[in-house]
Design goal:
Layout: H1 2-46, H2 54-73, H3 75-99, H4 108-115
Length: 116
Amino acid sequence: MNEQYAETTNAVEVNETVLEELNKQTEEAIQTMVETEAQKEFMRYAFLKEPKTPIGKLVAGAWRKFKEWWDMHKRKEVEEKTRESVLGKLAELKKETKEHPRTPVVPKKHRETELE
């Protein structure tokens, strides 16, 4: 009886630990979703051409100032790095394709008509 009680107590403790971890992960997921909604709402305000509310005016104005700064100081650098990265990956894939050509996959419906 004592042995069974100990096993049951141990199982309960393990399940409580798992439950606590699941609750923690659930709360983190909820907070991530809430933050994502806040960011989406911010971006809605940021892109308003003629905001009517004080918060809309504040966010849209801050976005325009940031965008001016970005275009003047960072855009060219980021664009060049991105272009190099994308074009480099494309070159690698072209080289890999030439070195190891793959047999094209024919969809099943086309295979049946070819056999007839």
